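mind reviewing both lines:
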Amino acid sequence: PVSWGDFRAAPPGDASSLIDVAAIYMTIHWSASYAIRNQGSNWVGTVESLAVVNAMDPLRSWVLASRESQQALGHEQTHFNLNEVYRRKIEAALKCQQATGPTSASAQSTLQQKLHQTADALLDRLAEIQSQYDRETRHGSDAAQQAAWNQRVLTWLAQPSLAP
């Protein structure tokens, strides 16, 4: 869970004129190692190990102290949870990737390209969903929409494949 103590950056100068009470800065990082094996006339590359991390950067996350509330913190928690949904989607999508090629180098290059394309597409979709979440909840100020999104994201956490 995130707490207001995790929001350590100074708010931007124009923060008091923004609809946002806070901003959480998150990233998803991934790395993979793979094996390239000869199978007859082709080389096959498969993912052997994978690390996908959802992280919040407290030094880039901020809150207007005068507007801290449990409602606002819950909104930021759902942003983090939504990131976690996509971390799980990326992990599932990347671990099953493989590629073939006529040489070891071509199989490796193709696998690397597939991994990056897959992760990039999911990260782009995550950015769209995060924006949609803020739009539909009016940055957490629409209580009914916020409650609906909280439930939706909890469902997606349990079953990431259901997330768009």
